[in-house]
Amino acid sequence: MIRSMTGFGELQRETAVGLLTVQVRTVNHRHFHTHFRLPVGAERWEAEITGILRERISRGHVHYRMSLQPGPGLAYPVQVDHARLSAYLAALQEIKDRYGLVGELDMELIARFADVLQTPADALESLAFDDVAEATRAALAMVVEAREREGAALAADLRESLGQMDAALDAVELRAPQRLLEERDRLRAAVAELSGDAQLDEDRLAREVAYLAERWDINEEVVRLRSHIEQVRQLVDADGSEPVGKRLGFWVQEMHREANTIASKANDAEVARLAVEIKTAIEKLREQVENVE
Fold first, then answer.
1. Is residue 160 scored above 70 in pLDDT?
2. Could you give the C-alpha distances from 53 to 47, 62, 63, 136, 174, in angstroms and in order?
3. Within-domain flag for 167
4. Can you tell me the distance from the alpha carbon of 259 to that of 176, in angstroms, rounded to the nearest whole number?
5. Left (φ > 0), alpha (ψ -120 to 50) or beta: where does 74 sit?
6. Does the residue 165 lie in any domain?
7. Closest CA to 27 of 57, 65, 66
8. Domain-located, residue 274
9. Is residue 220 one of the residues assigned to a domain?
10. What is the mean pLDDT of residues 17-30?
11. What's the rounded Cα separation, in Å, for the pair 150 and 81?
């Protein structure tokens, strides 16, 4: 089963020094990328936490947040980084003055600057990393479950788009030879009208139709596009033991190439319309595949 790159998990765990909260949120990204918001003193665990995240996530932007609320009888002193706060306020005031903006620099705004209020590193010295690791893995399991649920919905949408492409290709294959017969009849009628009683050169007409058949032939494109559809279908139905998002993206690009060629060789309103349907389904596939791990 394919997995989405979107998920969220949160775990709270009682520790010897207080309530530990771990949040893990993932969104789309071409590669594995992390962003941490850790209490002062927890930065030393960033590499270990990254290793844990990589155990279950191979692709996506991972937002990781950890906080520790002191238990009864414990108090963690909070320090104000006055130099940083002064710099923030000065910069904001300059922006306000220069551009004539309205609004007050109040406590609500200051509270959004997470790096202004800091907890000394020694406040986390008594926290065991085992607690952090277990909380991280538990939150990560929730993320993976959410990614799998959304992946199942994505798979259903992908199969629907593939089915639409199959149906449109069936119609293209039925229509493609018919357009040549109609063009032959049109040419015969045009030549007869222009030549009057002169005898029609059937050999010349046959050569002209053969030339058009070669120019308009889309059999190879249709065969390749059907092969690409089958490749995507196999990836969508795979067991999910490895990520397939990048491979799906490659096959969608190849689909688009074949659909463009079919459209350029259409020379028929119905085939052109069906080519547009195919390209629309491919574009929908592309948007869906961007969220597949």
1. yes
2. 10, 8, 10, 8, 51
3. yes
4. 14
5. beta
6. yes
7. 57
8. yes
9. yes
10. 92
11. 42
* Domain enclosing residue 87, as ranges: 79-118
Helix (H) or strand (E) holding 10: strand 7-15
Assign 174 to helix, strand or coil.
helix
Is residue 285 within 8 A of residue 158, CB to CB? The reply is yes
Q: Which of 255, 235, 234 is nearest to 244 (CA)?
A: 235
Q: Give the span between the Cα atoms of 249 and 255, in whole angstroms.
A: 10
Q: In what order do the strands lie in the sheet with 60-70?
A: 7-15, 18-27, 60-70, 32-37
pLDDT confidence bin for 144, thresholds 50/70/90: very high
Q: How far apart are CA 257 and CA 167, in angstroms?
A: 19
| Residue entry with tokens 């950890």 | 66
pTM comes to 0.71
Neighbouring CB atoms inside 10 A of 7's CB total: 25
Nearest to 176 by CA among 270, 64, 285: 270
Residue type, 12: Q
Select, from the ranges 3-7, 90-94, 267-271, the one with the highest average predicted confidence (pLDDT): 3-7
Phi, psi of 128 (to 5 degrees): -80, 140
- Tens of pLDDT along 232-285? 999 999 887 788 999 999 999 999 999 999 888 877 888 889 999 999 999 999
Residues 161 and 284 in one domain: yes
Q: How far apart are CA 208 and CA 191, in angstroms?
A: 12
What is the spatial distance between Cα 237 and Cα 227, in angstroms, rounded to a whole number?
A: 15
Residues 65-94 have a mean pLDDT of 82
